[in-house]
Amino acid sequence: MCSSDLTVPSGVGAAASAVIADRLLRRAVAPLPIRLVYPDATVIGTNDTSAPALVVNEPDRLARRMGRHGLIGLGESYMAGEWESTDLVGVLTVLTPALYSMVPSGLRWLKPVLLAAQQRPPCLSREQMLRNVAAHFDDLSSDLFVEFLDETMTYSSACFDRLPPSWNDLAGAQRRKIDRLLDAAGVRTGTRLLELGTGWGELSIRAAARGAAVHSVTPSARQAWQARQRVVAAGHSGRVRIDLCDYRDIDGSYDAVISVEMIEAVGHHSWPDFLRTIARLVKPGVAAGF
To answer: CB neighbours (10 Å) of residue 38?
Structure first.
C-alpha cells in the first residue's frame, strides 16, 4: 500500500535506511546505460552524456523515501520534485528491471519478515473503499483518463506480441490480455460471468461478444455510468448488467469470476475476505481469474 501523503520519512530509522537505499541505488545504476546525476556533479552510470539521465535534486529526501517505501518512494519523490529526468521513459525502461537487484540476493528473504512485522492496518470498510475510489475516479473527469489511455480505456498491464511496442500496439495488446483471461476462465456462450471491478467496461464487452451473461460490479459511480454507455454503444446491453456496489454485497452463483486489478485495490490485508467472497460466489470446480 502506498503512503498516504508526500511527507518525507524522519527519525533515526529513516536516516539509517536512507544510507542503505542510496548505496543500493548507486550500485544498481553503475552498470546501466543511463546517468544518475547528483547536485555535487557526481555521475553514476554511463559516461555517454547523450544517455537518459535521472537528475537528483534532493538526494537525502529521495533516499529516505526509497529506504522507507521502496519503489513507491521513488515515485513519490518524483511527484515531490526531488528528482527529474531528461527522458523519463528512457530512464524507467532501463532502471525498472534493474531495481530488483538493488537488494543483495542473500538479504531478499528478509522482505516477508519485514512485511509481517509491520503494524497490520484494519481491512478497508465500505466507506473507506468508496472514499478511495472517489479519490481515484469519481473526483476526476473521465477526460483525464482519455488523454493517456487507449481506446479500450484499460489501465492494467497489456500483453504485447512484439517488442518494443508502439502506441498503436496498445489497444490490441489490452484486448489480447483480456482474451487470455476469458480463455483461462473458460468464458463462452452461456457462461454466467461475474466481474469484480468494472473499469470502463472493455472486459464485459468482450465477454458478452462471446455470448456470456455478464454481471459486473464497481464501487465507482463514474465508471459504472461510463461503462454502461460503452456497453450500449457496443450493442451488448442485453447481456451485460453493471451494478454500483461493494463486492461484499454480491449474492448468487456464477460459472466464472474474473477480477483485474482488484487484488491491488482491496489491499493484501483484505485478501482473505476477498477470496472468501469469491469462493462463496463461484460454483465448485470452476474458474476464477486475476
So the answer is: 17
Residue 135 is classified by DSSP as I
202-209 vs 170-184: helix crossing angle, rounded to 10: 60
Number of alpha carbons in the 13 Å side-chain half-sphere of residue 4: 2
Question: Is the pTM of the predicted complex or chain greater than 0.70?
Answer: no
For 214, the 3-state DSSP assignment is strand
Check residue 2 and give its pLDDT.
Answer: 39
What is the amino acid identity at position 253? S
Residues with Cβ < 8 Å from 225, sequence gap 6 or more? none
Alpha helix ranges (H) inside 124-169: 126-133, 142-148
Going by the DSSP 8-state scheme, the letter that residue 49 receives in this structure is: T
Distances (CA, A) of 24 to 21, 67, 100: 5, 10, 10
Residue 290, C-beta contacts closer than 8 angstroms, at least 6 positions apart: 258, 259, 260, 262, 263
Looking at residue 255, the DSSP 8-state letter turns out to be: E
d(C-alpha 198, C-alpha 220), whole Å: 9
> What confidence tens digit (pLDDT) does each residue in 99-130 have?
766 665 555 544 554 445 455 555 566 666 66
